[in-house]
Amino acid sequence: MLKITEQYEDALKSAPWCVALGSFDGVHLGHRRLIELLKEEAKLYGTGSLVYTFNVHPRKILIPNKHIYLITDNEKRAEIIEDMGIDMLYLEDFNNVRDMSAEDFVKKILVDGFRVKSVVVGYNYRFGIKGEGNAEILMQYGEKYGFKVNVVKAVEVDGHTVSSSLIRHIIRSGSVDKVADYLGRDFSVHGKVIYGKQNGEVMGIKTANIDVKKDITLPKKGVYYTSTTVSGKLYKSISNIGFNPTFDGESLSVETHLIDFCDNIYGEEIEIFFHRHKRDEYKFESMEELVKQIRRDIQDRLAI
To answer: What is the pTM of this model?
Structure first.
C-alpha cells in the first residue's frame, strides 16, 4: 500500500531509498518508464521505492498570475503511482527547495533526507535554484556522495517525444482517442456529482454534472463517447463538455449520461473516461431536435 507523506521524518524511518524525481503530471509513458526502472533499482539495492514530486506544481508558484492546467490532480496521480507498486509518494512543498543550490538539494534532500542509494530521473530533469542542475550535474554529485544515477531517455510515439505539455495539447484539441498512446490509459476526469440546471430531467435523459477541479485540462467543447465509473462499476456513457447553447447556458459544465442507469448519485464521486470525440456542441432549433440527436448519440455509443 502506498504511503503518502510530506515529512522527512516519515521517509527516514524506512531509509535508505531508491528515488525517482520529477513532476509526474499525468504519469505518462515516460514517467512510467522511470517508475519501472525505480522498482528494478529498489529490488537490486534491497530498499523501498519512493517517488519524489511536489504537492503544488512549481510553475504555479513561479508564475502565480498564470493559470496552470494539469492532466491529473494529486489524488489521481497517487492512485496511478500506487497501482504501479511504489512504496512511498513524497509530496514536497516547492517553497522549501526553490532557493536551494543544486548541491544543497542533493546533500539535504537526497543524502540526508532519504539516504538515497539510487536515483532515477528523466533526460530533461532540472533541479536547484533557477534550474541550475541537470542530469549530468546530478551524475557528478552521485559520484561525490556515493549514490547511483540513472537517466532515462526520451520516450517517443509516432516520432513525437512524450511529454505532459504535448498530452495537454492533444486533450484540448479533442483528440482523446490519441491520448492513450501517450498516457498508457484513457484520459479521465473525476469529481462529485452536483446539481446542475436539470435540463436532462426536462428532456427525459438524466445526466450527472460533476465538479471538476478548475486546474484540470479539459477536452474542447463537444460530445464524447465515454465510460463512467460509479461505486467501482463501469457503465457506457456519453458526455458533454460545454455551455448547453440550446438552453442558453452561460457556464461551462461537464456532464455525463450513464446508459441503462437511473440511480440518484448526487454527492457521489464518479470518474469519466474519454474514448472518442463524437460531435461538436451546437445550438439546436428546438429541445425536441436536441433530444433526437442525443438518442442517436446513445445508440451509436451502444454500438461500440
So the answer is: 0.92
